[in-house]
Amino acid sequence: MNLLTVILVAYLIGSLPITAFYSKKGFRRDLSSRSAAGFRREPLLSVGMEMGKGALAALLGLVLHGWTGAAFASIAVVLGQIYPVFTGFRGGRGAAVSAGALLIMSPLLVLIGIGIYWALLFVTRYRSISMVSAVICVMVLTLVLFPELYVILVVFGLGSLVLLRYAGSVRRWRKGTEPPFRWRGLGRWR
Q: The pTM is what?
């Protein structure tokens, strides 16, 4: 399988609307909604499945074309999540898929990023600010911890895509219209 085919397969993996397959509201409802209905009910399952898409694509690229293939597949799977062909190029924000792809390339960075996200979420109670801050911290830490060029390029590419998708949420936070995070028990939050 050549590199271009790996990139195309990774994009298609990212485009799959997997939350629609297990949602109680059905496939059609999830495709019309910007946020998957299943995410509110089963957030850990949804995030895990999205991370699995990213990890699968990066692993496929790594096995078939080494680190270069993993880097290209990581970018492609996130682009597939953000601009999915199956839902009219309207998709998610790509954070969980990015974390899954990065899990193959650098598990330490993913653990640090998740830790920063949760710590900031407890402090700020705003998901967008927590995510943006965690992404920026991971981007800076990449420069300090990992001198390999492919990791730096992938982290900055994925981070830039995620930051672009969260720009609207940050604007809503600045205006005071973004709702704060509310705990409803483990595995159930809004």
A: 0.80
